[in-house]
Design a protein that fits this description.
Blueprint (H helix, E strand, L loop, with lengths): L1 H11 L3 H22 L3 H25 L23 H4 L4 E6 L10 E6 L5 H42 L13 H12 L3 H9 L1
Antiparallel strand pairs: 1-2
Helix pairs in contact: 1-2, 2-3, 3-5
Organism: Illadopsis cleaveri (blackcap illadopsis)
Membrane topology: Multi-pass membrane protein
GO biological process, one term: regulation of sodium ion transport
């Protein structure tokens, strides 16, 4: 649900890189839930590996909005340089008032408007940082849970194999009769009189 909520606001802000990352995250989460329900440990392992990637991505988002390491929140990195859109929260955050001023008096900027946002109770970059931090927390909990589920499934498989999975003589094994006994029964069917009958024929 948290990923879906974030996806909606990233769509509203045309943040294409986060949109793609959120989409992959939702798919992997569904895969992990399917693996848990259907007892597929491999799917859960894929989810556990993805959580590490997801944590790394959200750390990058935090560094991006806090402008750590030369990153700039005003760059077009998250939109793949397709547009100059910013986070939806930059104009629609709590307490924000959006104002448009005409630019008709400036040459080359006729029919354009300057948008200013004032009165925001919380700057939009901190909202994005809180979103990413919450995603990291959920991912860490999911990673621990995935490891626990995989360990439980593995223990169940090992206990099953110990009881009878690797037993060369399982419980449903039918003891076959020895070959010499089968040969003897076949001989008696073909020659019911036995050796005495054959001796009488020779006489």
């Amino acid at each position: 649900l948290a990923a879906l909520e974030r996806q909606v606001f990233d769509f509203l802000g045309y943040q294409w890189a986060p949109i793609l990352a959120n989409f992959l995250h939702i798919i992997i989460v569904i895969l992990g839930l399917f693996g848990t329900i259907q007892y597929r440990p491999r799917y859960i392992v894929v989810y556990a590996i993805w959580t590490a990637v997801w944590v790394t991505w959200n750390i990058f988002i935090i560094c991006f909005y806090l402008e750590v390491g030369g990153l700039s929140k005003d760059s077009e990195l998250l939109t793949f340089n397709i547009s100059r859109h910013q986070s939806w929260w930059s104009e629609n955050g709590p307490g924000c008032v959006r104002k448009e001023a005409s630019m008709s008096g400036i040459k080359g900027l006729d029919n354009h408007s300057y948008i200013s946002v004032i009165g925001c109770a919380l700057e939009y970059r901190y909202i994005e940082v809180m979103h990413s931090s919450f995603q990291i927390l959920i991912a860490l909990v999911g990673f621990v849970y995935a490891c626990y589920v995989v360990s439980v499934f593995t223990e169940e498989e090992d206990s099953f194999d110990f009881i009878g999975g690797f037993d060369p003589f399982p419980l449903y094994h039918v003891n076959e009769k020895p070959t010499n006994l089968l040969f003897k029964q076949t001989y008696l069917l073909l020659f019911p009189t036995g050796f005495s009958g054959m001796e009488g024929m020779n006489k």
